[in-house]
Amino acid sequence: EPEVTQTPSHQVTQMGQEVILRCVPISNHLYFYWYRQILGQKVEFLVSFYNNEISEKSEIFDDQFSVERPDGSNFTLKIRSTKLEDSAMYFCASTGVNYGYTFGSGTRLTVV
Amino acid sequence: DAKTTQPNSMESNEEEPVHLPCNHSTISGTDYIHWYRQLPSQGPEYVIHGLTSNVNNRMASLAIAEDRKSSTLILHRATLRDAAVYYCILRGETDSWGKLQFGAGTQVVVTP
After folding, report:
1. Cα–Cα separations (whole angstroms), residue B58 to A19, B10, B28, B75, B86
2. Which of A31, A42, A58 lies closest to B103 in CB terms?
3. CA-based angle B41:A86:A46, to the nearest 5?
4. For testing the chain B interface, which of A42, A50, A95 should be mutated: the one with the most B CBs within 10 Å?
5. Residues of A contacting chain B (CB within 8 angstroms)
6. Residue A51 DSSP code
7. How many CB pairs under 8 A join A and B?
8. Among chain A residues, CA nearest to B33
């Protein structure tokens, strides 16, 4: 069964550093998403991406965040200057025409 | 998206059925009922969705009340692998690609 692949599985970074989280969505999917989940809390929507542009973003997705699909297969989330409160699991997801979203296993980001 | 209400947790014995209720009294006529689950340390996983008629797939069954104000996800024979948080989410017919709004879900505990 096709999978959404996320790398790395765990990233530790110093506060103020830039991080890039990487995702390879399912190849024939057209819509891509980033969600995050702070430990013990709900899964929160960050951003959706379609046709090489952001289609929707949440209040969490401020100027410190950006997304890119650089080469037609990867989908990245960049956090420019990480804060302690950015520590969370970050999930990438994609969907095609069958209504079901496929999520990756996530990247655990720890900001120290 | 319309709001859903689920119990915080449910417990089941292995190999017994599990019935997970979801109330959605403000559902509109074109809202689909979606279920996702999140296994420990994993991303959410699509389970099933429906509009009016009951639905079955290899993972579960979805029973939808005649007035559509509630629904029940049925796991026919719970296994230890079914221990997860189950989310009931409403999606508009014209919102196929939009964000998923996750609530707290129902934590299912399966006892051997």
Report:
1. 39, 22, 28, 10, 16
2. A42
3. 80
4. A42
5. 4, 30-31, 33, 35, 42-45, 48, 50, 55-56, 58, 91, 93, 95, 99-106
6. T
7. 53
8. A99
Decide: A112 and A12 in contact? Cβ < 8 Å.
yes
- Residue B22 forms beta bridges with which residues? B71
pLDDT in tens, B72-103: 999 999 999 999 999 999 988 666 678 889 99
Contact A105 B46 (CB under 8 A): no
- Cα–Cα distance, B70 to B61 (Å, whole number): 14
Tokens of A66: 């950006």
| B69 φψ region: left (φ > 0), alpha (ψ -120 to 50), beta (else) | alpha
- Name the residue among B42, B100, B104 with its Cβ closest to that of A101: B100
Shortest CA gap B4–chain A (Å) = 14
pLDDT in tens, A41-85: 999 999 999 989 999 999 999 999 999 998 878 999 999 999 999
The Cβ of residue B99 has, within 10 Å, a number of other Cβ atoms equal to 21
